[in-house]
Amino acid sequence: MKSKLVLETGEVFVGEGFGINHETEGEVVFNTGMTGYQELMSDPSYCGQIVCMTYPLIGNYGINRDDFESIEPAIKGLIVKELCDFPSNFRSQMSLDELFKKRNLTGISGIDTRRLTRIIRNKGVVKGKIVSFDTDTETVIQDLKSKNFPTNQVEQVSTKTPYSAPGKGFKVVLVDFGSKLGIIRELSKRNCDIIVVSQDTSAEEILLMKPDGIMLSNGPGDPQDVPHAQEMIRSLLGKVPIFGICLGHQLIGLACGAKTYKLKFGHRGGNHPVLDLKTNKVAITSQNHGYAIDEESLANTDLEVTHIALNDRTNEGIRHKIHPCFSVQYHPEASPGPEDANYLFDDFINLMEGFKANHN
């Protein structure tokens, strides 16, 4: 089926649709990963977004049951240069097109993804819509221009009811702003007793669970759209160790008086170098975010910078000077991507051990 991608800035890309024949619209972003399309499309942080893959061949190793990062994909659509119809991998159970049909998702292939990526790099993130070829282009453009970006993505992807992943180690409350299963896997590897709670859970409710530590997950959208989480974090500081990832990192910054801003085109991919200022070592990291902490705004807070991105010098990590609390902008659980930063989960365990020893 012939389809086209229309951007609010007027550009049109004609290609072949895959998945279901259905119009879909969202924020068009690009991801620089060579692999990981299955984890990407099931990452709740992509809620409301249409993702362009910069690597030209997508789908060649198929889809399997183990590499999902959530049960329900939150992605709005996928854009690829070449879609593989006949994947080859011993774990493959279906093609990407078959999965999109089963999950009622829409994609488009056969377009110039490099040109699209250059447009996003130059103009910044834009709204776009995948429609059938005969749809009136000007009508789509005007419709896109009249719409605002959604502000309730975290509410859409967060769990509605608490659930647990039992273990015999430290009790960790994971606040789900759009958490990837990779975070639960890493905590479970360390035998943590995990309770996953909704994004709007209060500090009082969390403290009643008697946690040894709090994990603030990744998630989609603008951190300033989640003001209740900032209040929750402020109430927990000093009472229990806290580790934040991605959106959780930004929320810690806001809760402590820092500011956040929207990046021109974000960081998305499994190949982003980050410098650890303490060790002076560089880790290649998996990233997926469109917002960042304004590093200058940290000057009058109790936070200090721990990591920076080498590509654009933006903030990638902070630590509280007084309380047991630290966070990173990238994904130490990877999925997909390198596991260079996996040690941060061990740092979290050590933080809980130290805090418990000093308060017994």
From TrEMBL:
Gene designation per UniProt: carA
Subunit structure: Composed of two chains; the small (or glutamine) chain promotes the hydrolysis of glutamine to ammonia, which is used by the large (or ammonia) chain to synthesize carbamoyl phosphate. Tetramer of heterodimers (alpha,beta)4.
Residues annotated as domain Carbamoyl-phosphate synthase small subunit N-terminal: 1-131
Binding annotation for L-glutamine: S45, G219, G221, L247, Q250, N288, G290, Y291
Functional pathway: Amino-acid biosynthesis; L-arginine biosynthesis; carbamoyl phosphate from bicarbonate: step 1/1; Pyrimidine metabolism; UMP biosynthesis via de novo pathway; (S)-dihydroorotate from bicarbonate: step 1/3
Keyword Amino-acid biosynthesis annotated: yes
UniProt keyword list: Amino-acid biosynthesis, Arginine biosynthesis, ATP-binding, Glutamine amidotransferase, Ligase, Nucleotide-binding, Pyrimidine biosynthesis
Record function comment: Small subunit of the glutamine-dependent carbamoyl phosphate synthetase (CPSase). CPSase catalyzes the formation of carbamoyl phosphate from the ammonia moiety of glutamine, carbonate, and phosphate donated by ATP, constituting the first step of 2 biosynthetic pathways, one leading to arginine and/or urea and the other to pyrimidine nucleotides. The small subunit (glutamine amidotransferase) binds and cleaves glutamine to supply the large subunit with the substrate ammonia.
Lineage of the organism: Bacteria, Pseudomonadati, Bacteroidota, Flavobacteriia, Flavobacteriales
Family: Belongs to the CarA family.
Record organism: Cloacibacterium rupense
Protein name, as recorded: Carbamoyl phosphate synthase small chain
